[in-house]
Amino acid sequence: MQVSYSGKKDVVALSNITVNIPRQQLTAIIGPSGCGKTTLLKALNRLHDIRDGVQVTGSIRIGGEDIHQPQHPVPELRRRVGLIAQKPYPLPASIYNNVAYGPRIHRHPSRKELDTIVERYLREAHLWDEVKNRLDDPAADLSTGQQQRLCIARTLAVEPEVILCDEVTSALDPVSSQKVEKLLLSLKERYTIVLVTHVLRQAKRLADYIIFLYLGTLIEAGPAEQIFTQPRHKKTREYVQGSMAGI
What is the pTM of this model? Predict the structure, then answer.
């Protein structure tokens, strides 16, 4: 797979990426700033489609099927492959309606069913006890950490297969970050999670599998323990040991 940007000067952001992401594990994409981590993440649910001048070539397969085939509509793909952004973006609506929004579109449940769905996924996001008495309040009234967990609940409510996380704790305080990390650990046995992180300590705490990118190329991928203790490539070893020049 390759991702390139056209303009005054064509730029290849990712080149010849071939990797298998294991199911129902947490995969961390690591590498220096500008190496293509978020570019790779966004390719997995076709978010590059919304930008002019971005070309994705090659094949991206989920469940053995190429996501670029016309029989796979983009809205359904993004239901199956949800994205949680670096900064939380709750809908301009109540806490309840943030979680209910996706199920209303995709499944048209009754109000009673919606009540059950909202409670279930707020519980899964470890947020229910904090908001159960204020479900009609605007989501914007929540703290940043609570908003991020609400966005996770909103993603879970449409029953995705894959959860993409783009530096989801970088805007949070240490206590909120710890809560989100604990949440991701509790989810990874039921969902395939792909996490972009620039914090190696976080990757060590959370990841089962590592993808290491450098200057838009895949340097190494493998089980987290192997990458952090016995990397095969010199650049990987330099990066995980903090001795790579320029970082």
Answer: 0.93
